[in-house]
Design a protein that fits this description.
alpha+beta; 36 helices; 51% helix
Length: 1017
């Protein structure tokens, strides 16, 4: 391929190049005319036209332009140099036809479509193209010459065909071969640099002598040996150069009229010269191309040998570096290749030249079961028989039994080259083997471990499963897990997700655990989950542990083992214990602890705007039922009333039993102000309905205290406030409802603040006792001392009862406070000076709460024993307003205390509503006139009438009467005249602390107010 057209991205450049070359070739050709002949001696334009058209053949857009250029330029060249224009036009057409036919033949016959002169086939294609193109052109141009000049067609056709064919061949061969890269790459001239100058000299002499001096045609063939010399010794490139030089010499001498062809006719002279050029060219090029092919083939053989040697060396290095043993045997079983690893593994046996049968004898090869290995069973032997052998394990004991190895063999037959039939006998065999002793031992240990795992897994007393983290599916499970979740066989769980076995509410726990395992955030997760039916679940303690982390080999999914222990019994026991801890055993209602917990929740909601309320109930008449019909009947009554209360409230409300006959109802999420009062009214009415028991119908009533949470305080404080409201209802005459939303609400709010401080006061012994003497009017001696409580507040100082006692009396703290007051009072009495005779009695007020809740008798007797005080010195004061609270059992306790010597005083007489009949039934020893009546003496006749009546009643019942609150001498004189035998008040003494009281008792300071009885007029 001409260099000008290679890789051109601008096709007009080579097109113009061919145009210029064609013009030059036409001019040169027309200059070789002999003696004014119309036909030139040579016609190089034929070769340029062939190359030009062949180039355009592969570029369809330029083919027409190229042919037109050949025709027009040839016609112009001929016409402008003397050829008649009609003939010149025909000549141009003949040149175009020759170029087109030659290009077509060259494209068809060129090897692999290449236009290269590098093989005999390419040379043949070029010769055929040149001759075919010239032959077709001969049908046109000579005919035109014949018609225009009258010359015979034959005399013109032969020379024209030879001239155009040879000229096109020489020019095309030179163009196709003499590219710069080809000339520069040619080594034949350098290889024969010693003989090349001699060859050039010989060619100069021979060609000069033959074509410059000789005059016989046969002499021209003296150049053939030199053609043979060049063709056999030099390359095709050198041969083409030789052809160009020879053509130039022959053409030049022939044009000059010299040489062996000078004597020939003009018409035949050019044809013979062209034929001589063809002989030189073909002889030289055929031999040169054959020689080049032989050199190329030899080079390929050498290169192949070098590559083979290189590959063999590489193969040797690779085989030597392989840790597996490699052995190759020929068809007879003789070892021809063995690598170092094989020598090491086989302990030196099996070297090159050793036959494979010797291995069995030298190494003591055996099957894994211990039986000897026959030679026919050896993998290489089997491979020589045409079998493919894969990973056969063979035991090696050694000839002396000093080895204990297991080798894994793989063997393949070596097929003969060119034989594709599987029945063809192999040319040999190759075997690879490795020492798998440790792997087998590890596999044995692994198998033993897996067997142990399966035994433990299947026989474990807890449920077990293997899970895939990505899918969450069970891949293996044991029977214990199957039994726990209620399926027949463990295999029924395979392929199911663990999350499907637990209740819906617990599935997120499984999902979160699997997500954490997948993200490698944890290695173990524990949880207690519910399995099966959500209403009646089985509880399982689930422990998930990472068994195998994720790896690319298993598509990035980790494996987890799940242990599921049945803890249903424990959970049920815990639930039962929790229920028992938070519920009343008799009624199964919520107990105090659960009520307080829910009350705290309601308080939190209340602070967010959700209104709530609390009711505190105390049964009126229950103690009488209990005392009359026994505790069993009382328990029946409580159970029936508990169910009745539950039926009155919403499912969100809480009904609780606080102990004894006291209940509470918590109502959260109230819709309106009146809803809580409406519920309280229904509760009050429902309790009052008769209850049918085994002993018959029983009727009790309730005192109900109602408080609203109001977004403040704590649960204990609000419960005490409700308790206080209940006592307000009870003091109002029992069987009523008091809602702390009116005046009492202020006191409840005050109670909210005071009760925590009072609880701390009791715990820290902040309560103190003072005493106010009670004097005998006979001689002014101190007959008794009333114990009065004070509170030594850490910030507010000493507080009197009017600042806290009302809150304390209506709270659950009162029982503990009264017991502390009793002990303080008796401790003080025990410390009074012994010089006083008889020793003064001590008056202790009894609270209504103590009458209802406390064990009055045992509390009093234990305190007397504790302080070693004579029971006759103790007077228990009962306020008249508490008389209705005295049940038969309390009355029995009071009577028993009186039998022990303790006196009972009725305090604040005249302020209550007790009937005279009830008064006569009480075991009372002392009557105390309330200070409100005493304060009216001398100014209010009604007060005097009441006081006189009480004194007269006491005298008639033989009861001691004490006038309280005497502050003036006039009051003193009136009560003395009325016959009252004892008096108490600020006139005689204010309440004294214990040191002052002891001094007062020792000195008898109050006697000055009393004159001898006879002095009173």
């Amino acid at each position: 391929m001409p260099a000008g057209e290679r890789g051109s991205s601008r096709p007009w450049v080579p097109f113009l190049g061919y145009t210029l070359a064609f013009v030059v070739a036409v001019v040169v050709g027309r200059e070789t005319r002999i003696d004014g002949s119309q036909l030139a001696l040579v016609w190089p334009a034929a070769g340029v036209g062939l190359l030009w058209t062949s180039w355009a053949w592969r570029r369809g857009a330029f083919l027409g332009a190229s042919l037109a250029g050949v025709a027009v330029l040839a016609a112009l060249g001929n016409g402008l140099t003397g050829t008649p224009w009609p003939l010149a036009l025909v000549m141009g057409l003949a040149n175009a036809i020759q170029a087109l036919v030659g290009a077509a033949v060259l494209a068809r016959l060129s090897p692999d479509g290449r236009r290269e002169l590098d093989s005999p086939r390419g040379l043949a294609a070029l010769v055929a193209a040149c001759l075919a193109g010239a032959a077709v052109g001969t049908l046109v141009a000579p005919l035109a010459v014949h018609l225009s000049t009258g010359a015979s067609w034959g005399s013109v056709a032969g020379p024209w065909w030879v001239r155009n064919g040879v000229s096109s061949f020489v020019i095309a061969a030179a163009a196709l071969r003499l590219a710069p890269r080809t000339v520069l790459a040619d080594t034949s001239i350098r290889r024969h640099r010693g003989e090349t100058p001699l060859l050039l000299l010989a060619l100069t002499v021979v060609y000069g002598a033959v074509f410059g001096l000789a005059d016989d045609v046969p002499v021209a063939f003296m150049v053939v040996p030199f053609c043979l010399w060049i063709g056999l010794r030099y390359s095709t490139t050198a041969g083409v150069l030789h052809t160009l030089v020879a053509a130039t010499w022959i053409t030049a001498f022939t044009l000059a009229g010299r040489g062996p062809f000078a004597e020939l006719p003009v018409a035949g002279r050019g044809a013979v010269a062209q034929m001589m050029i063809a002989v030189v060219a073909l002889t030289t090029l055929v031999l040169a191309l054959q020689r080049d092919q032989r050199d190329a083939l030899a080079a390929e053989v050498v290169a192949a040998a070098e590559r083979a040697a290189e590959q063999a060396g590489l193969l040797e290095v690779v085989v030597s570096s392989i840790s597996d043993g490699i052995v190759v045997v020929d068809e007879s079983g003789e070892v021809i290749v063995i690598n170092p690893s094989a020598r090491e593994i086989m302990a030196g046996t099996g070297v090159t030249g050793t036959r494979i049968g010797e291995w069995v004898r030298s190494e003591g090869l055996r099957h894994l079961d211990g039986t000897p290995l026959a030679e026919a069973d050896l993998p290489l032997v089997r491979a020589l028989q045409g079998a493919d052998v894969d990973e056969v394990d063979i035991a090696v004991t050694g000839a002396d039994g000093d080895r204990d190895q297991v080798l894994s063999f793989t063997a393949r037959p070596l097929r003969r080259t060119g034989h594709t039939s599987p029945d063809a006998p192999p040319a040999g065999a190759v075997s690879a083997f490795r020492d798998v002793t440790e792997r087998r031992r590890h596999a044995t240990r692994l198998e033993r471990s897996e067997r142990h795992f399966r035994t433990v897994f299947d026989g474990a007393p807890v449920g077990m499963a293997i899970l895939d983290v990505r899918s969450g599916l069970v891949s293996r499970a044991n029977d214990d897990l199957a039994a726990f979740v209620g399926v027949d066989h463990a295999s029924d769980l395979v392929g199911r997700a663990l999350r499907e076995l637990v209740v819906d509410a617990d599935r997120p726990s499984i999902d979160d655990a699997m997500t954490a395992f997948a993200a490698t955030e944890v290695e173990q997760v524990r949880a207690e989950l519910r399995f099966g039916d959500a209403d009646h679940p089985s509880w399982g303690s689930v422990s998930l542990a990472l068994l195998e982390p994720a790896s690319p080999a298993d598509d990035g999914s980790a494996t987890v083992v799940a242990l599921v222990e049945d803890v249903t019994a424990r959970k049920r026991a815990e639930a039962a214990l929790t229920h028992q801890a938070l519920h009343d055993q008799l009624t199964d209602l919520a107990n105090r602890a659960l009520l307080l917990e829910r009350l705290e929740e309601a308080l939190a909601d209340d602070r967010r705007g959700a209104a709530a309320g609390l009711m505190y109930l105390d049964l009126d008449g229950f103690k009488a039922v209990n005392d009359t019909y026994g505790h069993a009947t009382g328990d029946q009554l409580l159970v029936v009333l508990a169910r009745r209360l539950e039926g009155l409230v919403r499912s969100t409300d809480t009904v609780a039993r606080l102990g004894g006959d006291e209940f509470a109802i918590l109502c959260p999420d109230l819709e309106g102000e009146g809803e809580l009062d409406a519920v309280a009214a229904r509760v009050h009415a429902a309790v009052a309905e008769p209850v049918r028991l085994s002993i018959g119908p029983v009727t009790v009533e309730a005192s109900v205290g109602v408080v609203r949470l109001l977004g403040a305080g704590d649960a204990e404080t609000l419960l005490r406030s409700a308790d206080e409201a209940m006592y307000v209802a009870k003091r109002g005459g029992s069987n009523g409802v008091v809602s702390m939303s009116t005046p009492e609400q202020a006191r409840a709010s005050r109670a909210v603040k005071l009760l925590p401080e009072l609880a701390r006061a009791i715990a820290e012994d902040q309560l103190e006792m003072v005493g106010q003497p009670i004097l005998s009017v006979d001689d002014g001696s101190v007959s008794a001392v009333e114990a009065l409580v004070r509170w030594r507040h850490p910030r507010r100082g000493l507080l009197t009862p009017d600042q806290f006692l009302d809150v304390l009396e209506t709270s659950s703290l009162m029982a503990a406070a009264w017991e502390q007051i009793l002990h303080l009072s008796l401790a003080g009495a025990a410390s009074w000076p012994a010089t006083v005779a008889p020793a003064p009695r001590v008056h202790v007020n009894v609270s209504g709460r103590q009458l209802q809740e406390g064990d009055l008798r045992s509390t009093v007797m234990q305190a007397l024993e504790c302080h070693d005080v004579d029971p006759a010195r103790l007077v228990l004061e009962l306020t008249e307003t508490f008389v209705p609270l005295i049940t038969d059992s309390v009355r029995a306790d009071i009577e028993d205390l009186r039998r022990q010597g303790i006196s009972i005083a009725l305090d604040d007489l005249g302020t209550g509503y007790s009937s005279m009949a009830l008064l006569t039934e009480l075991p009372v020893d002392v009557l105390k006139i309330d200070r409100r009546f005493v304060s009216g003496l001398g100014s209010d006749p009604r007060c005097e009438a009441v006081v006189h009546s009480i004194v007269s009643l006491g005298q008639r019942l033989d009861l001691e009467v004490v006038a309280e609150g005497i502050e003036t001498r006039a009051q003193h004189d009136v009560v003395v005249q009325m016959g009252c035998r004892s008096a108490q008040g600020y006139l005689y003494s204010r309440p004294l602390e214990q040191p002052e009281l002891r001094g007062y008792l020792a000195t008898g300071s109050g006697a000055r107010w009393f004159a001898p009885r006879g002095a009173l007029g």
